[in-house]
Amino acid sequence: MHDHRRLGRELGLFDTDPLMGAGLPYWLPDGAVVRHTLEEYVREAERAAGYRHVYSPVLGKRELYELSGHWDHYRDDMYPPMELGGEQMLLRPSLCPHHALIFRSRARSHRELPLRMAELGGMYRSERSGVLGGLTRVRAIQLNDAHIFCTPYQAVEEAAGALALISRAYADLGIRASRHRLSLPGGGGKYVADPALWRRATALLREVLDASGVAYEAVEGEAAFYGPKIDVQITDPAGRESTLSTVQIDFHQPERFGLHHIGPDGARHRPVMVHRSVIGSVERAVAHLLEEHGGAFPPWLAPVQLVVLPVGADQEERAHAVAREATALGLRAEVSGPDEGSLGARIRRARLVPYQAALGAREADDGLLAVRLRDGRRPGVLPVAEFLRRVGQRVRARGTAL
Fold it and tell me: Whole-structure pTM over 0.90, yes or no?
């Protein structure tokens, strides 16, 4: 059973420092590579699906979160206000209020809908010390978030498209959903009071789930304060379940923010907000990937994709030339030379690197590499250009195959 906290430190991916504070990990170079690659993957997938990316500030006035409903319904999970120039400013607990403001920053036509707005942005949750752990529960979160502004008639199709995007990402990342949950409101004053909107949003999400063919169960008390949601659940090796990805349909915030677009009839109409997150927080996604793969990331995501292993000192210059050639092709390559130990020891140390290429005197003279895959397979001796072409092809295809 793999523990992402131990693996993260062992592999030099992330760590913490008491002077930075609990729940505030920092990313080391190899961890930053994984994070950056994951973020770029999501951005690329979103661009291909018609999303446009924005940036919004991590601070907002208290009035903003009063308007969105966060201050009334989510205050216990927010950091206290900061007094700045006679105004109370808050670290944002969510990106949706900012995206609502961006939508209403100018007049919108029905021709612009669905408008898919995405951001990989920071948000902050005032988590209790007792629940913090590694990357799974943190206080500063990098969230893969998006909001689709659409008509009520487009909401089901857009939510279904988001669910399909999540499914494709899981296949590329080599992870799987343990179950899908339709999260509904429970009792108490945690949720906004508008039964008609809750019923309408729930009916639309049931339609999405039924059409998708995935098995799901409805659970009360797990909804967002403003609406029901589809939670894509994952389970860690210890059997603990958590939510990684979500799809939500929200009638509440468009009404609170007075959002509207001009319809084909020339009248003002209220859009629906579909909230969705493909990989949730980057922190939790990396934690789950570490535990799911034991540090052996899919080749396209691995911090080092190729290690070149010169047998002796005479082959080091050629090994560095191969690594430079790989780097020029967009691969992440390193050289592990004889000064780092015997060839066997270096191969064992590079056990999590997807591709290993040994370089002896004969290979160096003939432009060849003795190839070994992470799973122990040995494709044999290949010309450098052919080997790098194959590796590049695998990396570009993503997925988990070596």
Answer: yes
